[in-house]
What does this fold into?
Amino acid sequence: MTARTHKPLDRTGPDALSAERIGWVDVPVRLKAGLGVALAGAVLTAAGPVVGVMADAPPPGYASTALLVVLALLPAAIAIAFAVTGRAVTGAGVLVGAALLAPGRALVDLQLAVDVLRASRPEILVPTSLAPLEPAAGLWLLVAGHVLAAVAGALALARAGAEPGSVYAAEFDDPSADRPTRARSVFTRSALLAGTIAAVGLLVVPFASDNAFVLALGVVDSPAPARYGLLALALGAAGAAVFAGSAANLAVARGMVLGLLAAVAAVTVPQITAGLFTELLHPAFGPFLALAATAALAAALWSVSPAASAKDADVRLDLRSLHRVAGVLGVLTSAAAVIAGTSSLIVADGIDTPPAYASRLFLPVAVAVLLLSAPMLASGSAAATRPAFIVVLAGVGLAAAGSLDAAFTATGASGAVTVGAGVWFAGLALVLACAAAVTAAIAGGAERDDVDLTERSYALPVAAPAAVAALLAVGAYGLPVLKAPDLVAPGIWAEFRFASWGLLIALGAVVAAAALAPAARPPRAGALLLGAAALVGFRALEYPLTAARAADGRPGQGLWLAIAAVVALVIAAATAVSARR
It folds into this structure.
């Protein structure tokens, strides 16, 4: 390949947000080969379900072929699209991000050949007996496709064999494409958190099952090689997230996180769909968690722009962009929550469906999120609002978990009942809320890196009421707010169900706010505690909003503890704001 003289792009002028365009002729031969190998692997992976994975196998739990084909082709299609439109460095990152999950996916698929009854793959087949099944050609096509995806990622690594001085090498090494050092450190920490969450989501059970022939197995219960495949998936997701978050070149980072998102979607979307549409199966929280964490990281990385230098002004510019993106995501979250709260959770032909009591909590949550999203869009008020905004977003998880639990219980009880639009918008609101929270948290990390905190101290006057509030919150979320003779409410210590995850998310947010507030600056501490007060208030609102769902209902201990926790949090917030530290 002939070397060319490369003139770096001026990123301080009108083209500051653009990347250097790399013509197809300037794409390294090794990267071209990687794109070709990735496309071949995608075709093989897509052909596997079409050809047939197991001989004489029963049908899958739902019409999954089209979905599996699209998910198989997605990473290669994204990478090729970037390469042919002049962003080959980003396309290479896509191949690397997707390749890190390929070994785990291959091991998980090989479980079908070892013991299909313990493979837990309803998108491939739902066994109806204990009769052994033999692998067919489609299984080996799947495994070969994953191997080729890993090879494609290896070919795209580093400069992909580009000669020094070439256009591709110059763009890959261009320091003007780097993020500021402090902004990069913020993304590294946030990516570690997002990658850890995604890894946990990939390790736990993919769905709940009432079918004796379809086992819901997480990493602990899975046999080899699926167990090692799940561990490899978790390590690959965490590693890809950290590499993307710490990469100096923003184009590489963006590509890697897109490749990771496509690969995680290929694993989790069939699991989520199986839980929703396969008889006797119900969704579990893990796949939602993995997909939401990865999507949030992708949204955060694509929300910032390359900086012209590593000056503090560039960090502040990124901070404003992050606030605006978080605010827009908050507005979209609020809109999705309103639709989820006013739409049907279940649909049944010829049957009168009961009111969606569980969805009513979405409406006050949507109002609170919208009220806090508006200041996030303004430069002057975003920083002061951000702590409360992050905490209140946990209310979406509380409302979504309760709504989805009610829908899954109803669909599992009767085959004539299917999920309604409220379920889809509840899931959408949850994903958007995660993306908004992670984006705002990254903005908070960027701000803290730009502030001298050496003189900060732990405020004991704030810690005392905050600690009391945290203890009260444990009881508020752990005990029912509504008691009735025929009502079995979800809990944390007993009756743990899908809705219990929402209780844990909200409780964790309140406890974290109470623990962080005494060490925070007074305005930020006050915002944290007021956000936590609103979050506990949502728990108290469950009683008036949902009391009609049970006959002879009366307030439970959780209601009084929630009200007491709100009072304690407001007192702690007032103490924090008035403090002079």
